[in-house]
Amino acid sequence: MINQKQSVTKALIVGLLLVAPALVSCQARETESRSLRVVYQSQMCRIQESGLSLLKSVNEFEALLSSIQGLGAGAAPVVDFSSHIVAVVAAGQKPSAGFQLRLVSNEAQLTEGLLTIDIIIDEPGDMAAAMISSPCMLLSFERAGVDRIKLVNGESSIEI
What we know:
Radius of gyration: 24 Å
Number of strands: 10
Strand content: 35-45%
Helix content: 10-25%
Largest sheet: 6 strands, mixed
Number of helices: 2
């Protein structure tokens, strides 16, 4: 009787050891919401190519704002770079002034180090001025736990 109980106990332990890794891998990945703050937005950013880049210091931030705004640049918005980072979202050069970048939500999703930001690029109406524009948006968010960033625009996305 004791040998039978020991055999059943051993079988249960071995079974649990075999099943445990599968249970761990089936656990849902934790997703955390992160607040996004638009610290600057313009239709005339002078950034020729569409893309996503990161600013990790006040000097980089102020240099970009100065190049966008030219000599008439005012005071830069305050960003605490010890705890936050700024993502530069650029739509690239567009043929008219009606294009605009917009956040789908003021919240991004952080899953396993990947921060996913959803945007929309609004197209101009029929009455948009026929001039070259280059829309951009600068977003600030908490840097803790963020290893990569994915920018999603409908079905297309880029990741850095």
